[in-house]
């Protein structure tokens, strides 16, 4: 199955001209929620759904514990989760402290297997849903349907 992409016209505010250009964006279908994901894992693995849910909850809880301690967490075949942050810089040494941190984030570094999947991904151009200048194209993730 290919990832559908479409062409949209976007305004790029990098300079004063606010140039409008065409760019491809993913036409994401849905967000897969916890229940359907666990259903799929149970079906593929042959393991009881309740056990799959318990293991996934346990994995997330354990990851949370290690990440709070400052550890990176590597999940074989999936990738590594790395706690990180952005902090303001200063010429004065004493001005740089914990209050300099302004954004905490969790970086994800995919495994070699997932990178290979991404690098071999096929794309399907959706010409029908592309470039209607009268409609706004957000390309954002919040407008995606959800599988519940």
TrEMBL record:
Transmembrane segments: none annotated. One of its GO terms (molecular function) is DNA binding. Pfam families: HU-HIG (PF18291). Keywords: DNA-binding. Residues 1-124 form the HU domain. Coiled coil: none annotated. It comes from the Bacteria. This is HU domain-containing protein. It comes from Parabacteroides gordonii MS-1 = DSM 23371.
């Amino acid at each position: 199955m290919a990832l559908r992409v479409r062409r949209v016209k976007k305004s790029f505010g990098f300079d004063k001209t606010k140039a409008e250009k065409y760019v491809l964006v993913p036409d994401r279908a849905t967000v897969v929620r916890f229940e359907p994901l666990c259903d799929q894992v149970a079906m593929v693995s042959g393991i009881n759904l309740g056990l799959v849910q318990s293991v996934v909850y346990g994995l997330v809880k354990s990851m949370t514990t290690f990440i709070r301690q400052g550890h990176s967490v590597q999940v074989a075949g999936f990738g590594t989760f790395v706690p990180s942050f952005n902090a303001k810089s200063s010429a004065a040494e004493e001005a740089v402290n914990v209050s300099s941190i302004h954004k905490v984030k969790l970086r994800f570094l995919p495994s070699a297997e997932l990178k290979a999947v991404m690098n071999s991904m096929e794309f399907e151009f959706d010409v029908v849903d592309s470039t209607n200048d009268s409609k706004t194209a957000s390309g954002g993730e919040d407008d995606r349907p959800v599988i519940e």
